[in-house]
Amino acid sequence: MTKTAIIRRCATLSEAYIVDGLLRSSGVLSSIDNANHATIDWGSVSALGGIQIRVPNSQFERSKEIIIEHAGAAEETLDEMFGPFDAPVKTRRWTAISMLLIYVGIIDIPVLLIFMWLATIIPAGWFDPPPNEFFYVEPYYGSAAVPEASGTNGWILVFLIVFILLWELTNTRTNNQSKDPS
Q1: How many Cβ atoms sit within 10 Å of the Cβ of residue 108?
Q2: pTM flag (> 0.85)
Q3: How far, in Å, CA of 53 to CA of 20, rounded?
Q4: Averaged in consecutive runs of 10 residues, what is the pLDDT profile of the chain (182 residues)?
Q5: Of the residues 12, 47, 94, 129, which has the fewest C-beta atoms closer than 10 A?
């Protein structure tokens, strides 16, 4: 049996397949460990130490040189194939807007109004009310097991989330703008 060594630990399965394909195309026999774990339960990959690429011990140094050579030449190869790359200008504005809509619940209001409208136009006789035996009533034992919460009921947390998202929305910058005004 040939002894193997881990040449690289990858964070994603696609990265592991790319490295494996690179090594195999260069004539190095390689294998991917934990690939099945990554496809079924990707959350366990980091606990397993990533997705490992194994090569025979006799080809370890050659594999290392292949990976280093291709990683260094990747930018030039992409420039030759697709031309120079200009980084796109990104803003975080839409992220902040979408999170604000989710936390505030603005999206829920039109959906609720649609359901209320549907309840007014659908005749009540079309649907039978559910029988009472499907409703579960929790027995009361005299006192609550959990003490009553304070009067805020999470409104302070909601206010802070909305405030942070509004702050993020008003202070978003593009990647090309510097934070320093000078």
Answers
A1: 11
A2: no
A3: 7
A4: 88 92 94 87 81 93 92 82 74 70 71 81 73 58 55 67 76 53 48
A5: 129
Give the SS3 label for residue 49: coil
d(CA 182, CA 174): 16
DSSP 57: G
R_g (Cα) of the chain, nearest Å: 29
The domain spans of the chain are 4-82, 93-139+149-170
Beta-sheet strand order (sheet of 4-10): 4-10, 51-56, 31-32
List the structure tokens of 84.
């120079």
89 contacts: CB under 8 Å, gap ≥ 6: 174, 175, 176
